Amino acid sequence: MKLIVKQKGHLGIRLWFPNRLILSKKVIKLIGNELSREEVDILYKCLLDFVKNNGHFVFLEVKSKSDGSYIRITI
Hints:
The protein is of the alpha+beta class. It contains two helices and four strands; from the N terminus they run ββααββ. Strands 2-1-4-3 form a four-stranded antiparallel sheet, with no helix packed on it. A hairpin with a 6-residue loop joins β3 and β4. The N and C termini lie close together (4 Å). The mean pLDDT is 80.
């Protein structure tokens, strides 16, 4: 997973996270009662299959009109 944050007049920040981070214990605790461990495993496997078959994709892209901020998350 790659996270890009840019703000007008500043240098952009690029952060790379392993996709396995999605299944870390801390992330599971943040999800809480919403999803079980098995459901998270299924979602993770579906995500890996999608990337394997279709290549990486833009998960989230936000552009601010007011201050020129830009955020992009690529998986």
